[in-house]
Specification:
The complex is a heterotrimer of chains A (410), B (295) and C (346).
Chain A: H1 2-22, E1 29-36, H2 43-62, E2 73-80, H3 85-97, E3 103-106, H4 110-123, E4 127-129, E5 145-147, H5 152-170, E6 176-182, H6 185-201, E7 204-211, H7 219-228, E8 232-236, H8 239-251, E9 258-261, H9 269-275, E10 283-286, H10 297-308, H11 314-333, H12 338-346, E11 349-350, E12 363-364, E13 377-383, E14 388-394
Parallel strand pairs in A: 1-2, 1-3, 3-4, 4-5, 6-7, 6-8, 8-9, 9-10
Antiparallel strand pairs in A: 10-13, 11-12, 13-14
Helix pairs in contact in A: 2-11, 3-4, 5-6, 8-9, 11-12
Chain B: H1 2-32, H2 39-57, H3 65-90, H4 98-119, E1 135-138, E2 141-144, H5 145-167, H6 169-179, H7 181-186, H8 191-213, H9 223-238, H10 243-259, H11 266-283
Helix pairs in contact in B: 1-5, 1-8, 1-9, 1-10, 2-3, 2-4, 2-8, 2-9, 3-4, 3-8, 5-6, 5-8, 6-8, 9-10
Chain C: H1 16-36, H2 40-63, H3 74-91, H4 95-117, H5 122-142, E1 145-146, E2 149-150, E3 157-158, H6 175-197, H7 199-209, H8 211-216, H9 221-247, E4 249-250, H10 252-255, H11 258-271, H12 278-297, H13 304-319, H14 325-345
Antiparallel strand pairs in C: 1-2, 3-4
The chains are: A alpha/beta (410), B mainly alpha (295), C mainly alpha (346).
Chain lengths: 410, 295, 346
């Protein structure tokens, strides 16, 4: 008898699990499935993206939801990918088939975004990618993939454009470069771009060093930088290694003329806290900074900070804006049919509303689904008497009034 | 030449901290004959304990030891007594119960993710501590002060454990159990109590390593994983169960990691470490100081 | 080891068909399942369940019968996935052929790694296999190219979902994947069953428990273990190709990760290693626990699902250190006896 009871109990248990997953709310909603790394090594960024999107969705719903759909609310569903492609795919399948989401978003890790984009394409569900910068994501010929963030070739292009402007502004010469990057999809992508631009720009590359982002000690890498003695050091790091690298460089008194980072770990809110004054004078390329000269940006950041206790980052602004892009597309589509949403997304030209806290003037997708206006800004970490802050310095039009970048590092 | 020396010194210092982290693992293995896969997580717990002790009381980072040491010992003692011991009792005839490996892996998952749930995914470190970024300048060379203290802590801890095992009554009971559990219990030693003590000690040593790391290292929920595999390699290199071996093994790994990148990329050095480890395993499986009959 | 406890029933004069009936029923149930489960979500979860059951069954030949604990089988998954993917991306070779080639490479690698490691015992063997798999992963992460083959280092390889069809081992639907992995699983279970009843199986079991005694009886334990390793690595490697074709993207951190090696060992130990039913039972328990707890808690309480996973691991090991297979086999036997007792009487 015992086995029967166990069987019944386990079937009931499964039923509960399945049932709970399939529950559908009664009122009209637009379901958005969001796949993010919420546990594991990238949990920190996953959480930042989630919180930014939560805030945007809350605002959209409080303002009356999607009016063309009778005030339909946006319902966010989150899933944890643990940064693993196969888990991301499984969650995408579940979102599409069981939860019947109307749109997918997220992934953050390029390694998860690749296969998820293939799933979305197959089911013809739009996949709105706020941040996964690998070029390839929008270069697969897919019709259902849209990306808000700039792609990595634009990031490296702008880093070198900044270098050029910097030399002109300070009438200084940068001759040698060192590349130090995490040995992953992201770091490798950047390094490829750097090599190309360095060659074109006539720079001499004195160090080209990938390192494992699980390294426990980065002083050997720092020693290599020190001995290569580059004019400018280019970095691509995740948070833990960004902090370790910055602190170790300060210990070994490594001072190139400038350090140019690539967002990511260097833009993580815990980076400034953990690296402290060692991070001073660092240049970091990001998509958005708190001092951006856009109406509403300050208020939005204040609100976010009050809710979650830290500043918005470029990545979380992309995630935030993505929700408004979605709401705009839904208004125009006036339908929850994924194909109609896709067509509306493709015709997006968003120029006003809260999403316009981004550093450029419109969000518009090209044929590949890439946001063609996505632009980047260079910030410098400095202390102007109110503690360390990130100050926009480039392009010059966006530079914070009255600030003169510090170059070379004193 | 001076560079080579500088890298070697850094390697020895950092390596001795790896060795310190691995000491606990080798101690637990020596007595219980099982690999504790949760060891990295215990190190993580030790780091968080030290972090909070310093943050809440404002004491010197190394003084946190007063608080961390008993806490970690109790934690390890209880972990063994409550979670692991029942399995030993259930599998009394098996010399190296593999099930214990699975249980310690379960403990690893639980600890790492509880830390994520409780403390969140943020990266933390102690900002204003007197040791942060302190360097000794010896000519052209730079030597990290917290790493140097870590080295001293590693040597002192190893020496203390050795003295404990050699000179005290309890230590002799631990060694007896490690050599032959059944014979020891015939002599009136309660092996399970010895297991508890060994596990408690191993955990406390992980706590010491945590305290040594906290002044210059980041603290986050998955930090233990970074050290896990490294510790395994070190204990095998030094010989499972050997105290001096763990220290030396750690230094070897540290030196390779520190000197290697000057000749190749850091990512290849990682591969070299694994290659060396496998080679060692094939040629001298008992490790540097391992006892032949133990494998 | 109580190998093949499920099938090694005392015949006791029952008709052969009846003895096999429950197994055939189970098989029929498994094949009919996609007719009932229409949801692609659950089919996806089921496919992964079968995939892990298959991986664990393959692992079991070494980890179960040979009495050692390999913790590096992800290496073979990776070799399989990379071989077929590289060959199909660069030369248009059908993944089926790549699958077999990958299996052959894995067999060679498995034997080469087994030669020295099988002399080790317990902890050393486990650690050596971990180091081997991790070392291989780091190598691949460092190699953008290997000779003429493009591995693309840490960035991984993507399989464009262009040509669908059996020959390309790629489908728009889930059902074909389900039947392929189910067939692979049935074959692997069949091989395990055959091995467990063969001289190889008996000698392996003897060598796993008392290597010295077996050696003194003139059994070449090391050679037998190598044979088991060869079969095991070959079979494991096939799953790698399946994995690649199913997720359409591979990179070293996914197909060669320690997580896979560990999960295989967990499933085997939870189910009961060294038995044929063990891997199936383990996968039946652990995969749903891991999937459903992630689905339910992954969004609100990140990390909790892995805590639950850890708790389940510990609880099963505490109460059933030999795995679920033992008490379930007892129940099964009692049930069979009662069923057939009354059946024969009436």
């Amino acid at each position: 008898m015992k086995i029967v009871r166990i069987l019944v109990a386990s079937i009931a248990c499964c039923g509960w699990l399945l049932g709970a997953a399939a529950e559908a709310p009664a009122q009209a909603v637009v379901k958005v499935g969001n796949i993010l790394p919420l546990s594991g090594p990238s949990a920190s960024v996953g959480l930042q993206n989630k919180q930014a999107q939560d805030m945007a969705v809350q605002e959209i719903n409080d303002a009356g939801g999607i009016k063309s759909l009778g005030g339909a609310k946006i319902q966010m569903l989150y899933a944890d990918s643990e940064s693993k492609p196969e888990k991301g795919v499984a969650e995408a399948e579940r979102f599409i088939n069981t939860e019947k989401v109307h749109i997918l978003t997220g992934a953050w890790n390029s390694a998860v975004s690749y296969p998820v984009s293939a799933v979305a394409e197959r089911y013809q569900i739009p996949f709105l990618v706020p941040v996964s910068v690998a070029d390839k994501i929008t270069e697969q010929g897919f019709k259902y993939v849209f990306r808000i963030a700039a792609k990595d070739s634009w990031w490296t292009r702008d880093q070198f454009a900044f270098l050029k402007d910097l030399q002109a502004e300070f009438n200084a010469k940068v001759a040698t470069l060192a590349f130090v990057y995490e040995n992953g999809d992201w770091g490798k992508g950047f390094a490829e771009g750097w090599k190309k631009h360095a060659q074109a720009g006539g720079y001499k590359v004195v160090l080209d060093e990938p390192y494992p982002s699980t390294a426990t000690d980065l002083s050997p890498v720092v020693q290599k930088i020190k001995r290569a003695n580059p004019d400018v050091l280019l970095l691509t790091s995740n948070a833990a290694d960004a902090i370790l690298l910055t602190n170790t460089m300060a210990e070994y008194k490594v001072k190139p003329k400038a350090i140019v980072a690539s967002g990511g770990g260097h833009a993580d809110p815990s980076y400034l806290k953990a690296a402290g004054k060692n991070a001073r004078y660092l240049f970091d390329i990001v998509e958005w900074e708190t001092d951006v000269n856009k109406p509403g940006a300050k208020e939005t950041n204040e609100k976010f900070k009050k809710l979650y206790g830290y500043n918005l980052t470029g990545e979380s602004v992309d995630a935030y804006a993505a929700m408004y892009v979605l709401a705009d597309a839904l208004e125009r589509a006036a339908s929850t049919d994924p194909r109609a949403i896709r067509d509306a997304l493709a015709k997006t030209r968003l120029t006003k509303g809260p999403a316009m806290i981004v550093g450029y003037d419109a969000i518009e997708f090209d044929e590949s689904g890439q946001n063609k206006h996505a632009a980047l800004v260079m910030v410098q970490v400095n202390d102007l008497g109110k503690g360390l802050e990130r100050i926009t310095v480039w392009p010059k039009a966006s530079r914070r009034a009255g600030y003169k970048p510090v170059f070379p590092i004193p | 030449m001076i560079h080579l020396l500088e890298d070697t010194i850094n390697g020895v210092l950092m390596g001795s901290i790896y060795g310190l982290a691995a000491l606990g693992l080798t101690l637990i293995f020596g007595v219980l004959k099982v690999i504790n896969f949760a060891h990295g997580s215990l190190l993580m717990v030790g780091m968080y304990a030290a972090y909070w002790a310093v943050l809440l009381t404002g004491v010197h980072p190394y003084l946190a030891l007063v608080f961390v040491l008993p806490l970690m010992f109790a934690f390890g003692y209880l972990l063994q007594a409550v979670v692991i011991q029942p399995i030993f009792k259930a599998e009394r005839e098996v010399r190296e119960p593999i099930t214990v490996i699975i249980v310690t892996t379960g403990v690893w998952y639980i600890l790492d993710n509880l830390a994520l749930l409780v403390f969140g995914p943020q990266y933390r470190n102690i900002q204003d501590n007197p040791l942060r970024g302190r360097m000794i300048e010896a000519g052209e060379m730079l030597i990290s002060v917290p790493k140097l203290w870590g080295f001293c802590a590693a040597v002192a801890t190893a020496a203390l454990i050795w003295l404990f095992l050699q000179k005290t009554r309890m230590g002799r009971a631990v060694r007896a159990t490690s050599l032959d559990r059944d014979a020891a219990s015939l002599q009136g030693i309660n092996p399970y109590k010895i297991y508890n003590i060994a596990f408690g000690l191993g955990t406390a040593v992980a706590g010491v390593a945590g305290v040594a790391l906290v002044p210059f290292y980041n603290i986050f929920p998955t930090v233990g994983v970074l050290f896990d595999i490294k510790c395994f390699i070190i204990v095998v290199l030094g010989g499972l169960g050997s105290i001096g071996g763990a220290l030396l093994g750690g230094m070897i790994i540290g030196v390779i990691e520190s000197v290697g990148p000057q000749f190749m990329t850091a990512t290849w050095t990682e591969a070299i470490v694994y290659g060396l480890f496998l080679g060692f395993l094939f040629l001298r499986p008992s490790g540097l100081f391992g006892v032949k009959y133990d494998w | 080891m109580n190998a093949s406890t499920v099938t090694r029933q005392p015949a006791s004069g029952r008709p052969v068909l009846l003895r096999w009936a429950p197994l055939l029923l189970l098989l029929a149930f498994a094949f009919a399942l996609p007719l009932v489960v229409r949801s692609a979500t659950y089919l996806h979860i089921l496919i992964l369940l079968l995939l892990y059951a298959y991986l664990t069954t393959s692992w079991n030949l070494v980890g179960g019968f040979a009495g050692v604990l390999p913790l590096g089988h992800a290496a073979f998954v990776g070799i399989g996935a990379y071989t077929s993917t590289v060959l199909s991306l660069q030369y248009g070779l059908s993944p089926w052929i790549g699958m077999i080639l990958g299996g052959m490479i894995s067999t060679i690698v498995g034997v080469l790694i087994g030669l020295p490691t099988f002399k080790m015992r317990g902890a050393y063997f486990a650690l050596a296999t971990i180091a081997f798999a991790e070392g291989l992963r780091v190598m691949v992460e460092n190699l953008d190219r290997l000779g003429p083959f493009r591995l693309n280092g840490p960035r991984g390889l993507q399989i464009p979902p262009l040509e669908v069809g059996f020959g390309r081992l790629m489908f728009a639907e889930k059902e074909p994947y389900y039947y392929i992995i189910l067939t692979m699983l049935v074959l692997a279970v069949g091989i395990t069953w055959a091995v467990s009843r063969s001289k190889l199986g008996y000698c392996l079991a003897a060598g796993g428990e008392e290597p010295e005694a077996a050696q003194s009886l003139g059994i070449n334990v090391a050679r037998l273990k190598l044979i088991a390793m060869a079969i095991s690595s070959f079979l494991t490697s096939l799953a790698g190709t399946f994995w690649a074709q199913f997720t359409l993207y591979i990179h070293p951190k996914s197909v060669m990760s320690l997580d896979i090696s560990f999960e295989i060992a967990f499933i085997a130990l939870i189910g009961g290693r060294g038995s044929i039913a063990g891997p199936l039972l383990g996968a039946l328990l652990l995969r749903p626990v891991s999937d459903f707890s992630r689905i339910h808690f992954g969004d609100t309480l990140p990390g909790l699902h892995l805590v639950i996973f850890g708790v389940v691991l510990i609880l099963v090991m505490l109460y059933q250190p030999r795995g679920l297979q033992e008490p379930l086999t007892r129940l099964y036997r009692r049930g069979m006896q009662r069923l057939f007792g009354t059946g024969e009487g009436g």
